[in-house]
């Protein structure tokens, strides 16, 4: 999950030397100033560090990924524009080295970039990340043996040291020892070929790195071209096509009805694409076979005629979650589940964003945990299952609001082109819960951006409870994040963060990049790099095999998967690596496990730790779940031994405490039979695995939550929920999951069988309506994304973005107390279950009170529930006709011993037209309450407040009787107060004044003056005479 937090860079297209000054351009004519051309689009490669491109009608610009600096450009001449047409769009091959540009004259221009180039420039950054040198070109060291060894070089062993240059050796050592250096590569751009397509091209895409698929019209056809062929000719086997009109699904009236394609989104990982036809329908199309034998099949996903003719305008496949997004012209977003059977199931509908205009495009985050919808007048960022995390419509950030194209450069970088033709780089703050999450990442979430990490420290804070649904944590004392800068060297050399974890106490951090592993100790305030000796010498950073990290107490656990060597291992490091004078090396490994020793051909996928019983879970590619029980042995040794040891036996400073981790092998859960062996996405998109009971597990993959139960004949997996973004344990008996719209709790204290448990729904702020099992989220603005929960305080923490000026955004952490959701759940459960002994999901009202009354805000929760109840009854006269909910809530309020105080606060928070609903259902009127409080309870303060309620209520009811159907004017209150009431007013005011409750006295008098000013003066006169006489 991510949030935009700052604009880091704004630039325009680079200005080139005048064409007349370039000798190579003398033979062609060019229009001047290509830097002023309108940018059409931007296309990036996400996370592998390769360059991205920017396209104009005649130019393609190549930009360095790290520095976002232009390194190459191809400007087409006027003759080229006249002959081949203007650039319209660009597509990128899966290996991200080939670009295909389509023109408006039905041509495809194929460009390639050269990844190895001698023209490299050394860029050095300061410790603050500022560039202070763009140095000299470096020699072709990859083919120069002299560079690898020189005088006094550590690489000279076994080499001929003769004739080795000192300067080159210096450069080699310099490059290897300074973490603040990075190469800015001058990638070569080459126009490889031009495809002149006779039949009009409707759409096109790469289906692999060297095969381009064209979809044509007149005739309708699919055409596949092999780009690695030396000769492109229709007489060879390098081009093949299939006529769409001969495909059954294409002409079938129930599927496509011969409708022409309008737009498509191809997904390389799943080898399929979503197709929008002219009718506005959406098809899921699967490509298979070879160039010589093309097979294309399709199934209908969405039909416009079934939703009042609302046509689809944009589609996107999320292969990280097996989801499909369909956006309608009405701006509604339909989220589908892409199933292994090559079909789609509608999961959720995201309502129209009210301020938004026409939809322009949709983009997927590199982790797949969120997506961006670009409109004509702004853009929104949603989580994978539809939580609105950020919207430009709620801020006035002019640089980023109106954009033409958006792309991600990585998990924490976004780049867009705004309507001013500016290229804007945006830093994103990412939460580690979204990528390979585990129990620790949910308990101790970590935020990171391009510069720093932020560690969640709310467990060490004491928060003041307020009677508000939301209260912002803004002051320094209540700041829940501890910020620490990431080392510059790590930021430079790692363009991808694979995993990050914070220890249970929040003091230790580990970050795994694609090249380096670093740890941070909050005690020593030091960063350390994992020192790994490279077997092969190279100036280029070697890709690390380490994939995941996890802490157990102060012991670091790393999981590796070296795909080249087919090696997969687990390592546990001693807590000595946290000591200031100890190194972070492989010598500190105290336990390891090699998966090659197992009888299965498997590799490490992910791991997790049950923090409540210290069980270590490891999941592998063969669906095996290995478990270990974790223990720690502590031994104390005397530093002084011998004859003098007894003299210092009581001195703790002369003792050494040694801690040793013990991993005891436990059960291996073999789960391969639980899943379709042909469904690779269970492994590829694996989320986490949890312990439900001694024999049962919960497994999350894609967005599917499976309950794995031990049966007599083996394990059985049951799909519990197909819309889950994450799941983790809040306590030994409480599971928590988030479905993109709400939190769901499973209480395991009554039963460990998830099939028998009723889920507890926790509202996070979304306006959710469920019809026929399909959830619809109506637009209500940005909703906080829950990143963690402290269950013993019934508090969830979420993150939102605040805008301070036109370029500055800042994350704000909000918390929401969800006790009202819990009480509401148990009231409803009590209603549904007639016999409480037969259903463990429900408890009686007295038990509900005993369970939740210990919380300070319990009375406020009852007020809120009553206010919500009265609102629902007012909106729907048939709601709770039998008063079952009301009576249970009424009983709960009575059990507090502060019934009239809670009801008074409730009535003050509602409109006066709601009051008759309450008093009718409670079979009590305000006048009876006033008399009861005055005579029996002798509570003058409450009597005064209810006297005000009484006069308003009686005016409302009398007005409703005399003017049935007319709305009551709240300012119209009777000017006649009876003599009995006047005497009651005097008696109440006497006791209030004598008890020095002047605030309530003033409030009552102020109200009475509005009602009957003359009567009030008479009463005050009598009161004054009484007080003077009593003196």
TrEMBL record:
PANTHER family linked to this entry: GUANINE NUCLEOTIDE EXCHANGE FACTOR SUBUNIT RIC1, RAB6A-GEF COMPLEX PARTNER PROTEIN 1
GO biological process annotation, one example: intracellular protein transport
GO CC entries: cytosol; Golgi membrane; Ric1-Rgp1 guanyl-nucleotide exchange factor complex
Name of this protein: RIC1 C-terminal alpha solenoid region domain-containing protein
Main location: membrane
Compartments, record wording: Membrane
First and last residue of the signal peptide: none
Organism this protein belongs to: Pichia inconspicua
């Amino acid at each position: 999950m991510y949030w935009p937090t700052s604009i880091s860079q704004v630039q325009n297209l680079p200005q080139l030397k005048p064409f007349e000054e370039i000798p190579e351009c003398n033979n062609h004519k060019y229009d001047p100033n290509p830097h002023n051309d309108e940018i059409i689009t931007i296309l990036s490669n996400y996370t592998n560090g390769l360059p991205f491109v920017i396209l104009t009608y005649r130019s393609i610009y190549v930009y360095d990924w790290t520095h976002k600096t232009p390194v190459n450009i191809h400007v087409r001449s006027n003759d080229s524009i006249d002959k081949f047409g203007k650039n319209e769009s660009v597509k990128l091959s899966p290996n991200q080295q080939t670009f295909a540009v389509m023109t408006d004259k039905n041509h495809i221009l194929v460009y390639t970039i050269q990844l190895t180039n001698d023209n490299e420039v050394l860029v050095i950054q300061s410790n603050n990340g500022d560039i202070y040198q763009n140095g000299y070109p470096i020699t072709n060291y990859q083919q120069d043996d002299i560079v690898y060894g020189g005088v006094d070089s550590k690489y000279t062993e076994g080499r001929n040291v003769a004739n080795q240059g000192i300067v080159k050796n210096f450069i080699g050592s310099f490059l290897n020892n300074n973490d603040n250096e990075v190469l800015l590569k001058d990638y070569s751009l080459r126009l490889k070929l031009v495809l002149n397509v006779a039949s009009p091209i409707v759409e096109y895409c790469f289906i692999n790195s060297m095969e381009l698929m064209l979809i044509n019209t007149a005739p309708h056809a699919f055409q596949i071209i092999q780009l690695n062929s030396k000769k492109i000719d229709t007489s060879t086997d390098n081009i093949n096509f299939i006529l769409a009109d001969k495909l059954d699904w294409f002409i079938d009236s129930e599927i496509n009805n011969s409708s022409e394609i309008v737009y498509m989104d191809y997904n390389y990982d799943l080898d399929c694409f979503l197709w929008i036809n002219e009718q506005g329908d959406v098809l899921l199309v699967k490509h298979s076979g070879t160039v010589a034998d093309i097979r294309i099949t399709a199934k209908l996903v969405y039909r416009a005629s079934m939703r009042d003719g609302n046509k689809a305008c944009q589609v996107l496949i999320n292969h990280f979650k097996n989801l499909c997004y369909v956006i309608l012209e009405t701006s509604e977003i339909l989220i589908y589940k892409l199933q292994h059977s090559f079909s789609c199931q509608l999961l959720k509908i995201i309502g129209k964003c009210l301020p938004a205009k026409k939809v322009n495009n949709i983009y997927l985050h590199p982790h797949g945990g969120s997506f961006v919808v670009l409109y004509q007048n702004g853009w929104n960022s949603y989580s994978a299952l539809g939580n609105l995390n950020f919207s430009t419509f709620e801020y006035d950030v002019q640089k980023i609001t109106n954009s033409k194209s958006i792309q991600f450069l990585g998990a924490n970088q976004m780049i867009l082109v705004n309507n001013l033709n500016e290229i804007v780089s945006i830093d994103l703050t990412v939460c580690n819960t979204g990528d390979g999450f585990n129990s620790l990442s949910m308990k101790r979430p970590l935020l990171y951006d391009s510069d720093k990490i932020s560690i969640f420290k709310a467990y060490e804070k004491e928060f003041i409870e307020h009677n508000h649904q939301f209260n912002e944590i803004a002051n320094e004392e209540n700041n829940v994040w501890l910020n620490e800068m990431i080392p510059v060297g790590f930021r430079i050399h790692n363009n991808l963060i694979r995993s990050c974890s914070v220890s249970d106490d929040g003091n230790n951090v580990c970050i795994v990049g694609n090249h380096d592993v670093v740890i941070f100790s909050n005690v020593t305030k030091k960063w350390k790099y994992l020192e790994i000796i490279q077997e092969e010498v190279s100036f280029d950073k070697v890709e690390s095999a380490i994939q995941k990290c996890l802490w157990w107490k102060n012991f670091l656990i790393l999981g590796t998967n070296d795909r080249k060597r087919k090696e997969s291992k687990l390592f546990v490091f001693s807590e000595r690596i946290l000591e200031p004078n100890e190194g972070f090396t492989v010598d500190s490994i105290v336990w390891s496990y090699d998966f090659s020793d197992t009888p299965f051909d498997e590799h490490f996928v992910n791991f997790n730790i049950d923090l409540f019983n210290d069980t270590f879970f490891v999941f592998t590619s063969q669906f095996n779940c290995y478990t270990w029980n974790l223990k720690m042995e502590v031994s104390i040794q005397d530093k002084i031994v011998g004859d003098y040891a007894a003299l210092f036996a009581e001195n703790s400073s002369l003792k050494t405490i040694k801690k040793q981790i013990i991993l005891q092998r436990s059960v291996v859960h073999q789960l391969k039979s639980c899943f379709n062996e042909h469904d690779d996405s269970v492994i590829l998109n694996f989320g986490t695995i949890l312990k439900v009971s001694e024999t049962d597990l919960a497994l999350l993959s894609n967005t599917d939550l499976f309950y794995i139960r031990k049966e007599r004949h083996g394990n059985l997996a049951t799909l519990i929920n197909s819309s889950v973004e994450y799941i983790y344990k809040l306590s030994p008996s409480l599971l928590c999951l988030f479905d993109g719209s709400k939190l769901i709790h499973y209480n395991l204290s009554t039963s460990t069988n998830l099939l028998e448990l009723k889920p507890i729904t926790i509202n996070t702020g979304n306006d959710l309506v469920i019809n026929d099992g399909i959830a619809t989220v109506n637009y209500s603005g940005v909703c906080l994304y829950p990143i963690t929960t402290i269950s013993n305080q019934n508090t969830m923490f979420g993150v939102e973005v605040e805008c301070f000026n036109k370029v500055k955004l800042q994350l704000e952490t909000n918390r929401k107390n969800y006790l009202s959701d819990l009480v509401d759940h148990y009231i409803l459960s009590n209603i549904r279950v007639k016999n409480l002994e037969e259903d463990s999901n429900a408890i009686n009202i007295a038990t509900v009170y005993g369970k939740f009354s210990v919380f300070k805000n319990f009375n406020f929760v009852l007020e809120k529930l009553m206010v919500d109840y009265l609102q629902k009854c007012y909106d729907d006269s048939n709601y709770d006709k039998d008063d079952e909910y009301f009576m249970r809530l009424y009983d709960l309020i009575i059990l507090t011993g502060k019934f009239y105080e809670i009801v008074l606060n409730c009535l003050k928070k509602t409109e006066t037209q709601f009051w008759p609903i309450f008093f009718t259902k409670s079979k009590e009127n305000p006048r009876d309450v006033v008399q009861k409080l005055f005579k029996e309870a002798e509570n003058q303060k409450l009597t005064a407040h209810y006297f005000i309620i009484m006069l308003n209520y009686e005016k409302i009811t009398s007005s409703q009787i005399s003017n049935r159907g007319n709305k009551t004017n709240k300012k119209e209150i009777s000017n006649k107060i009876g003599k009995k009431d006047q005497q009651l007013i005097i008696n109440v005011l006497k006791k209030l004044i004598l008890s020095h409750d002047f605030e309530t006295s003033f409030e009552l008098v102020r109200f009475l003056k509005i009602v009957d000013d003359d009567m009030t003066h008479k009463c005050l006169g009598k009161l004054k005479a009484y007080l003077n006489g009593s003196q």
